[in-house]
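On clarity, I found the account of how folds are encoded harder to follow than it need be. An entry of this sort, consisting of the sequence and the corresponding backbone structure tokens, reads as follows:
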Amino acid sequence: MPRSTNSVASRNRRKKVLKQTKGQFGRRKNVYTVAVNALEKGMQYSYRDRKKKKGNFRSLWIQRINAATRQYDMSYSEFMGKIHKKGIALNRKTLADLAMNHPDAFKAIVEKVK
């Protein structure tokens, strides 16, 4: 008995890959074998960068807190050390938001820590 192929399923598989690589440059968007490689590499980057994004935001928050505490003659590490000693349980995201959008509230925290 000859081997049967399921051309409907294989076409759908290929269409799925080509749909996901839409917007890529050159042959990456319309040649299946090239598109598969491009898609796999893109998926690796997206997985890695979902993890990296969290670290990027943390470093942004630290920069904002540091810039805000320098206005009150204090370094970031000094401020964070004192805030933990006082038992103020605010995370970096919240502190950075206060520093950017509510400077009076941030000033009150700094005064309490000093």
User: Anything to note?
Assistant: The two ends are 85 Å apart (CA to CA).
